[in-house]
Amino acid sequence: MQTVTTLSDVSQVYRSLKASCEAEVQGRSDVIDLILIALFADGHVLLEDHPGSGKTTLAKALGNCIHRPSDADPRFAAFRRIQFTPDLLPSDVTGTTVFDPNQNQLTYHPGPVFANVVLADEINRTSPKVQSSMLEAMAEKQVTVDNVTHPLEETFLVIATQNPLDQAGTYPLPKAQLDRFLFKVRMTFLSREHELEVLAMKYPQCRFDSFVAAELIDAPMREIRPETIAQARQVIQREVKIDRSITEALVEIAGRLRDEPRVAQGISTRALVVTIPALQARAMMQGRDFVSPDDIKSLAFPIFSHRLELQPGISSGDLVVEQVMLPVIESLCRKSIR
């Protein structure tokens, strides 16, 4: 396994992961980038869209990119899916302790959360008790069963999905749990061209003479192991620089959001802490070794909007974030020009 020591190595890993995902999912380049940012920034993602939009396929495609060596811990898998339903139990997520008559002792059986990429499908379909069973895993990379703590791997990513329609019988995630997700991404319907691509890839007989499939990113495929991702995170943290003006701008945006009359509850300090590695990861993807104001402008909506508790009658968190953020970004750009 080739070690990752420079930003050039990290960029190669990123391009390889993106090429693999785009080979399976068409028309979702921007969403793939956000998920890869979360992977490199050690965060989690909440995808929101209608059924059949490719959320599950995208999560599975990323999980299939991770190769585990034959001598790896057998309790873990590269990818696992949890289908959340109203009758699910917390032990169905974290695992349970059962009596082994052969050894005459209690034995812990790990749950599906023991994986590098976990798809929490329709997370709002299950009870708050089961939803909360994910909190410890997402926040501390461990699960506690029968007063025994079991660590998860360092490269642990949750991709949760929820359907914005058909809310009967659902349990909306509370703000405290939404805060555990680095991004909330609202996916939209594919364009006409991308839907043609999907059909042409699935059914070759649907390919038209005038139809030209989208070209994949020209990146050499390489074996991506969990250790590779862990190394990439360290390189990004070490090599991508953040000027003090960037952190001051983030604190200024947070303060303005908390004082905004349309906001009942502003963003937490934790939101600012997790924003830093996300900005560094995006800068790397853009081929830079420093964070720019454009990185803040690009990631502010998926990071901040879902963390805001809006006043009654206010429906768009994106609009509030945009109006609060733009003056700060403009001031930051003027300082950069000087």
Automatic annotation (TrEMBL):
Residues 44-183 form the ATPase AAA-3 domain. InterPro entries: ATPase_AAA-3 (IPR011703), CbbQ/NirQ/NorQ/GpvN (IPR050764), ChlI/MoxR_AAA_lid (IPR041628), P-loop_NTPase (IPR027417). CDD domains: AAA. It holds the Pfam family AAA_lid_2. Residues 258-312 form the ChlI/MoxR AAA lid domain. GO terms for molecular function: ATP binding; ATP hydrolysis activity. SUPFAM superfamilies: P-loop containing nucleoside triphosphate hydrolases. This is ATPase RavA. It comes from Rosistilla ulvae.
